[in-house]
Amino acid sequence: MVFANRNFTVFKKASRLEAQVDEFLDLISEAGLLFRQCIELYLSQGESEEFTTKFQQIDELETRCDVLRRVIEAELFERTLIPDLRADVLALMEGIDDAMNLYEDNARRFADEIPNIPEEYHKDFRELTETVVESMESTILASRAFFRNIEEVRDHLHKVGFFETEADHISARTIRKVFRSDLTLEQKIHIRYFISKIDDIADRAEDLGDNLAICTIKRRI
Asked: At what angle do helices 49-78 and 83-113 cross, to 10 degrees?
């Protein structure tokens, strides 16, 4: 273990556990890219074969993530990490796994409910999706920094907050537009539901960022 304020690393040297954590974070990043493609395909093609394929790929990643998280948890308990640090790492892994679930849940909702989203809102949905994925990706980068170079965590967390705020603005703006349109109330409520659920991804990224900030402060004391 290294406890210096600078160049803090969770693990003393390169190890199987570090490789597993890297792979875990890679899966979340890949899911974000697939989710972005998934929404783009749905908006441009509807319930197409390509959309279904992307959704299935996200579903497969979610399963792999669950398996790998359990492997990492088992490995952590075999390590001689101090209990407080182990608890922080476990909480971080579980929180990031929840983010993967949000990607999968959102894609599944589109596949199951097939929402009718008028073309005039497609740009808003694309912008919202792009922003929430950027927010989560910044959290992933902050997580990588936590394990490798704690001095870089803060820069990434600043971006998490920026993108989360942007996502809130986009979702609020789009909901206002929807409810001032001539759509039926049923359509308005359904579209708002999907906007809110996508925005939840950025909210989760912010929650993870807050927890990561606390963990970082504890490690630097």
From this structure: 170
Tokens linked to 4:
């210096």
**Which among 53, 57, 49, 52 is positioned nearest to 31, based on CA atoms?**
57
CATH number at residue 179: 1.20.58.220
Q: pLDDT by residue (tens digit) across 156-188?
A: 999 999 999 999 999 999 999 999 999 999 999
Whether the Cβ atoms of residue 166 and residue 205 lie closer than 8 Å to each other = no
Count the domains in the chain.
1
Q: Please give, one letter per residue, the 3-state secondary structure of 55-88.
A: HHHHHHHHHHHHHHHHHHHHHHHHCCCCHHHHHH
Cβ(183)–Cβ(118) under 8 Å? Answer: yes
The answer to whether residue 155 scores a pLDDT higher than 50 is: yes
